[in-house]
Amino acid sequence: MSRDTRPKRDRHALNDDGMVLCNPRDREAAHRAEMEGIATENRAEVTCRTCRDLLHQQDRDRRDRGAG
Questions:
Q1: What pTM did the predictor assign?
Q2: Domain range annotation of the chain
Q3: 24: how many CB neighbours lie within 10 A of its CB?
Q4: Are 50 and 22 in contact (CB under 8 A)?
Q5: CA–CA separation, 53 vs 21, rounded Å?
Q6: Strands (DSSP E) found in 1-68
Q7: Where along the chain is composition biased (Basic and acidic residues) (predicted)?
Q8: In terms of C-beta density within 10 A (0-12 exposed, 13-18 middle, 19 or more buried), how is residue 2 classed?
Q9: What mean pLDDT do residues 16-31 have?
């Protein structure tokens, strides 16, 4: 159990590999985020600023590739 007592934590997005989007190389961070309930696959629930920016960048890249 985590000793973190913060009442509100950022919700992080998961990538296709199940890793935290803002820290994709850290398996420990992904596991911790899932166990503590701060990881989500629902884009509307993401509150981490870095994850949200990366999600928007992915959307733009997909949109740009589809238009060309």
A1: 0.79
A2: 12-67
A3: 15
A4: yes
A5: 10
A6: 12-13, 39-40
A7: 1-15
A8: exposed
A9: 92
